[in-house]
């Protein structure tokens, strides 16, 4: 039923109320169904997946070790040289290392696939 049809039906229903009688509104259960439904949907599609991602990220940070190749939130790819309480030292090239916050490590880098040689 469309929104306009529902409004028209409600208007005609209000005219049918006898004079002097108070119009009957929705029950408490009917009023709570819609907000509770939205809360359930928000939990299932927003909150639960975010909690899962946070748990996976926390697991990644606790299992981080020297030799892992990681990607930072800034897009820097490097090999972990050392792991401290809240910092990670990354080797980004030969004789070049960066010290980044451990929380900025986003993921383990995927193994690079060999590039196909261009046919000339």
Produce a short descriptive summary.
With 120 residues, the protein is an alpha+beta fold. Helices cover 40% and strands 23% of the residues. A hairpin with a 4-residue loop joins strand 1 and strand 2.
Q: Based on the structure, what is the oligomeric state of the protein chains?
A: single chain
Q: Average pLDDT value?
A: 84
Estimate the helix proportion, in percent.
40-55%
Structural class: alpha+beta
How far do the termini sit from each other? 64 Å
SS summary, helix count = 2
Give the SSE string: HHEEEEE
Total strands: the figure is 5
- Spans of at least 5 consecutive residues whose pLDDT stays below 50 are none
Strand content: 15-25%
Can you characterise this structure?
The protein has 120 residues and is α+β, with helices and mostly antiparallel strands. 40% of the residues lie in helices and 23% in strands. It contains two helices and five strands. The protein is rod-shaped, with a radius of gyration of 29 Å. The model has no long low-confidence stretch (mean pLDDT 84).
């Amino acid at each position: 039923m469309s929104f306009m049809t529902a409004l028209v039906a409600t208007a005609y229903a209000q005219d049918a109320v006898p004079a002097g009688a108070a119009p009957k509104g929705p029950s408490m259960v009917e009023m709570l169904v819609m907000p509770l439904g939205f809360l359930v949907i928000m939990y299932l599609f927003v909150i639960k997946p975010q909690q899962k991602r946070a748990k996976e990220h926390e697991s990644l940070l606790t299992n981080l070790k020297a030799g892992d190749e990681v990607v930072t939130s800034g897009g820097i790819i490097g090999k972990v040289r050392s792991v401290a309480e809240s910092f990670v030292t990354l080797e980004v090239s030969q004789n070049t290392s960066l010290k980044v916050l451990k929380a900025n490590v986003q993921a383990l880098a995927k193994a690079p696939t060999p590039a196909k040689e261009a046919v000339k």
